[in-house]
Amino acid sequence: WAAKPAQTYLKNAWLLSVCACVCRAASPQEEEDSAMENIVTEKKAEESHRQDSADLLIFILLLTLTILTIWLFKHRRFRFLHETGLAMIYGLLVGVVLRYGIHMPRDGTSVMLNCHVNASPATVLVNVSGKFYEYTLKRVLSSSGNKVDDVSDNENEMLRKVTFDPEVFFNILLPPIIFHAGYSLKRRHFFRNMGSILAYAFLGTVVSCFIIGLLMYGTVTLMKHVGQLHGEFFFTDCLFFGAIVSATDPVTVLAIFHELQVEPDLYALLFGESVLNDAVAVVLSSSIVAYQPTGDNSHTFEGMALLKSFGMFLGIFSGSFALGVATGIVTFTKLRDFQLLETALFFLMSWSTFLLAEACGFTGVVAVLFCGITQAHYTYNNLSRESQDRTKQLFELLNFLAENFIFSYMGLTLFTFRNHVFNPMFIVGAFLAVFIGRAANIYPLSFLLNLGRRHKIRSNFQHMMMFAGLRGAMTFALAIRDTATYARQMMFSTTLLIVFFTVWICGGGTTQMLSCQRIRVGVDSDQDNSVTEVPERSSTKHESAWLFRIWYNFDHNYLKPILTHSGPPLTATLPPCCGPLARILTSPQAFENEGQLKDDDSDLILTDDINLAYGDITVNTDGSGVHTSSGAGFASGMSSEDLDRELTCGDNEVVMRGTCLVFPMDDSEPTLKDPHMRF
């Protein structure tokens, strides 16, 4: 018994030594396999990097080719095809080549395993021979139990590479387009037609959305009866489709209007509607998606759920508006001595407005639009001259590149998107619904607006606005954001065809439509409004919204002195009891401008009377140098002529504001009955 434990010990020692020898022999093989695996991984990463570079190069070449062709068209004065339509054509051609001319099979093999889970996980960890691999959900291949045949079909790796994440359009490409629309807004003509623009943008977009939704619901019901519908399509889906196709983007028409110098009021109506109804369509589509009635069926009609969606619409829009205005006011740069830093800070604050609104649950499109309008009104005056030019040119360039990139991608997507659903009945119904919805937006509202407008919206203007209801970048971005279900895939495919038709046909026929409707061209908007007859100014006075005139006086006398260095100092507009507070809030530059302006004015005093209107204080100076002043009051401190002059200076980028010299009339002119009046 004593020898048996010793024998067992020796046996175990011998087994351990054998195992150690085997492990030592196997370890070099494992190290070699691991090294080979690392080499293969590095090669795949390098190939993927080269492939990504080639994909981006395709879009860069598309933009380059578009720019060169645009130059040729402008040189030849060819107006039948705009640059956006041209970008779409080039995108179509490249899409055809990628789809049918280049085939790059996917590396590796596809393994299909069945796993029953209640929800689709965003990330999956797979254990393969002791190594864990992480896989991220890319897209849904099929639903409702349909079998997937041949996962690696077909599938061209290049097509997968050139497909962008939809969030790229919302977070990177859309912000500069929307911001540029607000930053370059022609404030004079916009505010002269503000009531009509708001009616078209808000009420008209909602009317168009519901009319298109109802007509499409009838079309879908008919498709069910004839057996042409192969998936679920609810009334809320129809309303969502009506919301996204109600967003107009007449970039082609507006470019031709600008080049031909069409009548300013028509340009302002069309541009203002397109700017604001994009924001309305985004919030409206979000409210429709958020419609959730109680119960198992989430698509039944319920009054409380409808009111909740309406309240969400108002809350999101007002919150986004307030956030955009607040961010625009906060962007109060003090870096005038370092122009590059000043421009960089302005750019980052503008872009962060969009991201901040999205992160807070609001709509970035609305926030960045009103941020651009606010910064053009206030922050622009605080920038140095170099930064003013840089910001204008920077956002104009970003808008041009982003817009043409999106339209090029539209053409490419027609062939590279792998889940298209083209239904002839749905397409025909969509075109008819879009046409009827646009007509219901323009003609009834124009009739109602003309009842209160002294300067009527003429019938040829209405026909032109009806014709110019193009769909573009915003419609495409809203449609491509969600293509997971059968209904959304059909909506996206139909939306592409609507965009193609409106850009090519309606945009290409703009010049002919202007000629057919006998709309004036070659109108200088500045000259047309600076040299105006008395009846025209009277008309402008009556058409100016009383609420806007009250805000304008408050803004000119109180907000601009605080937020900018222009306008009258607060010491001249606030009551005498607020003198210390006025001196604290007024910047030193405003006092310097005031002194400089008064010194310059004194050099013009010769022997005639001069009437100096400064803010709401009038100073009369005669040849003996005696000064008399009188207050004009808050509500009447700004006339309609001063309002037009202020907005005109804003359009022409003239920074000097707040001072108006009124000289006596020439002896050769007829004498007025009122001796106190001066021109």
Give a quick precis of the structure.
Helix content is 66%, strand content 5%. The chain has helices at 3-76, 83-101, 157-161, 166-183, 187-192, 194-225, 235-244, 251-260, 264-289, 303-330, 339-359, 364-382, 385-416, 424-450, 459-467, 473-480, 486-508, 510-516, 525-530, 534-543, 546-563, 570-573, 579-585, 588-602, 640-651; strands at 123-128, 131-136, 610-614, 617-621, 627-631, 659-662. α4 (166-183) packs across α11.
What do these coordinates show?
With 679 residues, this protein is mainly alpha-helical. Helix content is 66%, strand content 5%. The protein contains 25 helices and six strands. The strands form two sheets. A four-stranded antiparallel beta sheet has the order 5-4-3-6, with no helix packed on it. Strands 1-2 form a two-stranded antiparallel ribbon. The chain is globular, with a radius of gyration of 33 Å. It starts with a helix and ends in a 17-residue tail after the last strand.
Chain-wise SSE layout:
Layout: H1 3-76, H2 83-101, E1 123-128, E2 131-136, H3 157-161, H4 166-183, H5 187-192, H6 194-225, H7 235-244, H8 251-260, H9 264-289, H10 303-330, H11 339-359, H12 364-382, H13 385-416, H14 424-450, H15 459-467, H16 473-480, H17 486-508, H18 510-516, H19 525-530, H20 534-543, H21 546-563, H22 570-573, H23 579-585, H24 588-602, E3 610-614, E4 617-621, E5 627-631, H25 640-651, E6 659-662
Antiparallel strand pairs: 1-2, 3-4, 3-6, 4-5
